[in-house]
Amino acid sequence: MVSTAAVIGIGTIALGMVLTPGPNMIYLASRSIVQGRQAGLISLGGVIAGFVVYLALVAVGVAAVLAIVPWLYTAIKLAGAAYLLWLAWSALRPGGHSAFEPRVLPPDSRRKLFTMGLVTNLLNPKIAILYMSLLPQFVDPARGHIIEQTMILGLTQIVVAGTVNALIVLFASSISLFLKHRPTWLRIQRYLMGTVLAALAVRVAVAE
Length: 208
Description:
The chain is an all-alpha fold. It has 8 helices and no strands. The chain is 79% helix and 0% strand. It is globular, with a radius of gyration of 17 Å.
């Protein structure tokens, strides 16, 4: 069975990633502001479907990698730590832009909204590296049931990301208006998330 520490760890990383502006946040915020909350929620359904696709693929892949080439664990760990550091730098560097300043978008059908949410997530490098590089290092082969551990950790990420993204959809317009007149709050959010991601990168790199 997966450890509580692993669940908390992947949940914290998922929270840091979902709060760091990226393709999913930009698309969901843009759609919600331009076309309304319903359109944002339909798009979110596509994003969550993308998470499920990644989880299904990785659940089998993690077992194979750890069983056949266990030395790749070190490479996976270092790659994951490097990516967290890159996200931290992206959040902390000067000149960052808010996801709540979207470009003008034409209205889309429900099918296109769902499909675009799915495609945006599947092509999101943040999510690809999360599932391919970061999540596997929280799986402990000594605890057995590798696929079960992977599923629990993946579902934890989906719950965290889905909840936060749903809140972004519901409050996108209000957040956009708030940040428009309070740039200091945007900088605080970036610095806070950047610091958290940097600390997690160090922890991942030095963990046994």
